[in-house]
Amino acid sequence: MESLLPTLGGELVSSLIPFLESVDVENGRVLVSQGAEGSEIYFLLGGMFTVFEKIKINGSSVILNTASFPGPSLLGEVNVLNETTRSATVVAIEGCQCFVLSQGKFDQIVSSNPKLAIQLLKAFGAIVSARSANFQNRVRGNILNDSRSIEAAIHKLGRYTGKVSRADDALDKKLFSADLESVSYISF
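That's the Cyclic nucleotide-binding domain-containing protein sequence above. Prediction below.
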């Protein structure tokens, strides 16, 4: 469990355990379904999972297999932060043991151990932020793939993301600290 929530430390992870339900996840089980209500958080200790999203293109339903990921991992943290319906369907393609934190148990944590609740929310926010950054970098990498020059890469990226231009040294120094390590893409 500590590997899933490294910022909590052993003491807070130990105080979380009594609020969790142990569940065996079998191969083929749908853990969450896109559009469904639900706020359980799954602490996946192993296994392999695949993510599906349903969209429409010109009125026709299309199913996207947007990702696959191994455990250990967390699932469902977005719903605790946003109180929204599930954003995707996740299926176990390899079973595992997991722990589940229900909304009711999370509410108990908020009441009885606010420090733990705050640290959990921070950890969930960090996970969402990291996943968003990884997705953004993957999309940019795919857009820039096979551009023959920096000019072609700038033009191609601009078509999808808005205005893009080469960094002017004066503007670069004004907007960003000198020690900023920006993401680097290779397009040609």
